[in-house]
Amino acid sequence: MAGLSLKGINKLYPNGFHAVKDLDLEIGDKEFIILVGPSGCGKSTSLRMIAGLEEISSGELYIDDTLVNDVAPKDRDIAMVFQNYALYPHMTVYENMAFGLKLQKKSREEIKERIDIAAKILNIAALLNRKPKELSGGQRQRVALGRAIVREPKIFLMDEPLSNLDAKLRLQMRSELNKLHKNLQTTFIYVTHDQTEALTMGTRIVVMNEGVVQQVAEPQTIFEKPANLFVAGFIGSPQMNFINCSIHEEAGSIYADFNNHRLLFPTDKAQLIKAKNYVGKEVIIGIRPNHIHAIAEADFPYESCCLKGTVEVKELLGTETHLHIKADQLEFICVVKPSLEVQVGVNIEIAMNMDKCHVFDKETEMAVF
Amino acid sequence: MGIQKMKTILHGLKDIIDTEFNLIDDSGYILHSTDFNRIGSYDRHVSALDFSSSFIIEFEGYIYCYSHHQEERCIISIKGIDADNRRLAKIIEVFIGAKDMGFSRNEFLKGILLNTISDPSLETLCLKHDINPKGSVRLLAVEATEELMGNLQEILTALLGDPIVQIKSNTYAVINRNDDKDIAHPAYLSDVLATELLYKVKIGIGASVENVKDWHFSLRTAETLIELGKVFLPEQNTYTFKDLAIPMLTSGLPPQELSYLMKHFNCSIDKIISNNELLVTARGFFKNNLNITDTSRSLYLHRNTLIYRLNKIQEITGFDLRNFNDALLFNIMINGHQSLKLT
Ligand SMILES: Nc1ncnc2c1ncn2[C@@H]1O[C@H](COP(=O)(O)OP(=O)(O)OP(=O)(O)O)[C@@H](O)[C@H]1O
Ligand SMILES: [Mg+2]
Questions:
Q1: DSSP, res A324
Q2: Nearest to A103 among B151, B183, B287 (CB)
Q3: Which domains, from first to last, does chain A contain?
Q4: Which of B154, B184, B274 comes nearest A103 by C-beta?
Q5: Does chain A have fewer CB atoms within 10 Å around its N or its C terminus?
């Protein structure tokens, strides 16, 4: 059981690359925290610094209030799980899990006790005498986790552990890891570049870009109240639609204007815009694809925020359909019901649900709301 | 088994078996014999003996047994070719062999890998040690720290089942058979080792070779890959030729020629190297096979931002990375710059 505290942590690689910049983060005991961001944003580097595999260039790392910058990895009470795992092919499941403990010179009784507990948690007690060859992909992955669990670490560090699995197994393992976290009551720090994984797994998400933390919050907050344009665009699939607009006030109403169109803000949002002094300024409006509707299927009026466009791509996903619509030189993605009959190439009228829109400052790219 | 010891044994045998034994060195010189008159003379048959396919040869009324020790090679000859003597020769061979196994399979492998055995019958020696001298093999160099060597060896043995030889205080060589598909892929090794040891073990995967004579070459390439990899690709832990072909070429050039080449292009490559943003963009673009869509997705850059940066790189260096040739030259310049810095 452990909490972590990262204070102003930087990683400057010997070749001069500044991979992690001023990372401040408090991780509570038993949290399941996810580091997510695009390739090269410094997720793995951050994780490796926590593990001690990578030196911390500046800043302080505390585990349970103890400064551990100079503590060797093996003394940090952590276990790591990476993308590539391999079981010892000639050993049984039991021996595979015992191996690391034998290297640590643990007693036979202790090894057995730990393996029994881990096997129960992972539901592999019946497999202990099997060889890796006789296991399914999911079972192997669980044995690999078992090897980490028997170390009884205070913190689990996982770097994209599911990214080599096929889609189905990945889905299954996601929920298994969630369960595992509940059962173990231990701190998990989990790295992924996959925003869906981040949204479905963690108790909190740390979104990173170019070595800098963009937002730290619970999944729902990250999704519903992205702190800036980057988070808004990175989290959510299909991606949020963005429109460059300027804001005008006319006859007491607030509008966002772009090209030859204007969108009317609902009163509460209009008030926020006024209060924050954005009238007359340039902003970026963001709307998630499920908040743009085809007029044909919308059951409430959006007269003042409609657009006419052409369907360019239609993606059938079963439970929903994605339309890529070109309107007035802009491209929008919207989510419609599969029952809506539209063909590629036809004209369509769409409407924005402005109650759900986000507004970002064009210069700072920070969320206005 | 040392020659001195052999002499003693031969001496003892004389009292038990009534036949002539000789202990002969490589050149045919008789070191010791049950027939004292022969000591110091030459056995002229020896030069005609070819032990490359068998260590026991019957020739001109004698049975010759080859004893293959690295430092002290010698031959034992038994006079008279009959069933008894044949059996005796076999027994001697077993003793020599058994002794060998215990004392030097590892030493022998190490000798092969460090290229200190220059025995024309190397292939036969391998068979004696239960080593297949033929077939596709690549050497892996696995580098950790001295204190991790014990655990590292146990893990490698458990994982690979390949022969493992310590070649430096912090490095193991793994003799990896390519045809063995059952074992973990070397790319997995570094993750597994990092999980077990909590240390970033560096692995070089040497060239594939077909004969035991070239194993040392394969190992040398594996070690070179680690050396270059640490400088040119520090973010990786496993290195293959594919990763480091260009650095190998640029570091192989004489510095003067390399700097001449660099000057020829006059491409201000240092301005890219000191610009994180552009360098990361270029690397990402290469990783994604010069594909704009894939790169912008993986780096999460807007398409236009990516194109803007590629244009900027072109402005600075003159290389348009969307063009294969330019991309290649750009890569050579980046690596060349680094190589020059090393010299
Ligand atoms: N040892 C190193 N030396 C120099 N640069 C490095 C080193 N390790 C990583 N980097 C660089 O630091 C940046 C961040 O790397 P990191 O591995 O943390 O990224 P990541 O967020 O995990 O990305 P990915 O999703 O691709 O795994 C990258 O640009 C990478 O090339
Ligand atoms: Mg990573």
A1: E
A2: B151
A3: 4-227 (3.40.50.300), 241-361 (2.40.50.140)
A4: B154
A5: N
The model's confidence at residue A300, banded by pLDDT at 50, 70 and 90, is low
Probe site for chain A from B192, B271, B293, B294 (most A CB atoms < 10 A): B192
- Residue B117 maps to a domain: no
- Considering the domain architecture, whether residues B179 and B224 belong to the same structural domain is answered as yes
* Residue B275: C-alpha distances to residues A18, A43, A120, B313 (Å): 11, 20, 52, 10
Most B-contacting residue of A102, A103, A145, A160 (CB-CB within 10 A), to test interface: A103
Nearest CA in chain B to A105: B151
Q: Do A53 and B198 touch (CB under 8 A)?
A: yes
Listing DSSP states for B70-110 in one string gives SS-EEEEEEES-SHHHHHHHHHHHHHHHHHHHHHHHHHHHH
For the cut 70, the answer to whether the pLDDT of residue A3 exceeds it is: yes
Q: What share of chain B is helix, strand, coil (3-state, %, to 5)?
A: 55, 20, 25
Q: What angle do CA A110, A112, A114 make, to 5 degrees?
A: 70
Split at pLDDT 50, 70, 90, the class of B146 is very high
Contact A85, B191 (CB under 8 A): yes
> How many Cβ atoms from other residues are within 10 Å of residue B306's Cβ?
19
Judge whether residue B101 has pLDDT over 50: no
Residue type, A314: K
**Using 50, 70 and 90 to split pLDDT, how confident is the model at B188?**
confident
Question: Which residue did the predictor score with more confidence, B1 or B145?
Answer: B145
B257 and B318, same domain (yes or no): yes
Q: Where are the beta strands (DSSP E) in A76-233?
A: 78-81, 155-159, 187-192, 204-209, 212-217
Q: Is residue B121 a part of any domain in this protein?
A: no
Give the phi and the psi of residue B184 in degrees, each rounded to 5.
-60, 145
Contact assignment for A39 to B183 by CB distance below 8 Å: no
Same-domain check for residues B190 and B262: no
- Name the closest residue on chain A to residue B294, using Cα atoms: A39
**Cβ contact, residue pair A73, B199, below 8 Å:** yes
Whether residue B118 is predicted with pLDDT greater than 50 in this model: the reply is yes
State pLDDT tens for residues B278-318: 999 999 999 999 999 999 999 988 899 999 999 999 999 99
**Residues near ligand 1 (Cβ within 6 A):** A 13, 15, 17, 19, 37, 39-45, 193; B 234-235, 280
From chain B, pick out residues whose CB is under 8 angstroms from the CB of A85: 188, 191-192, 195
Ligand 1, atom 6: nearest CA belongs to which residue? B235
Asked if the structure places residue B100 within a domain, the reply is: no
Is the pLDDT at A66 greater than 70, yes or no?
yes
| Residues B241 and B282 occupy one common structural domain | no
pLDDT at B99 over 60: no
**Separation of A41 CA from ligand 1 center, angstroms?**
7
Q: Which ligand is nearest to the CA of A55?
A: 1
Residue A272 Cα distances to A220, A266, A359, angstroms: 22, 10, 10
**A8 pLDDT above the threshold of 60:** yes
pLDDT-based confidence at B182, cuts 50/70/90?
Answer: very low
Determine the distance separating the centroid of ligand 1 and the alpha carbon of A38, expressed in angstroms.
11
Mean pLDDT (chain B, rounded): 87
Chain A hits for B187, Cβ within 8 Å:
84
Quick one: B143 and B233 in the same domain?
yes
Q: In this complex, do A86 and B184 lie within 8 Å of one another by their Cβ atoms?
A: yes
Spell out which residues of chain B touch residue A82, defining contact as CB-CB under 8 Å: 191-192, 194-195
Q: Write out the two tokens for A305.
A: 């925020």
Chain B residues lying within 8 Å of A84, measured CB to CB: 187-188, 190-192
Query: Per the structure, how many domains does chain B have?
Result: 3
ipTM of the predicted structure? 0.85
**Are B226 and B264 in the same domain?**
no
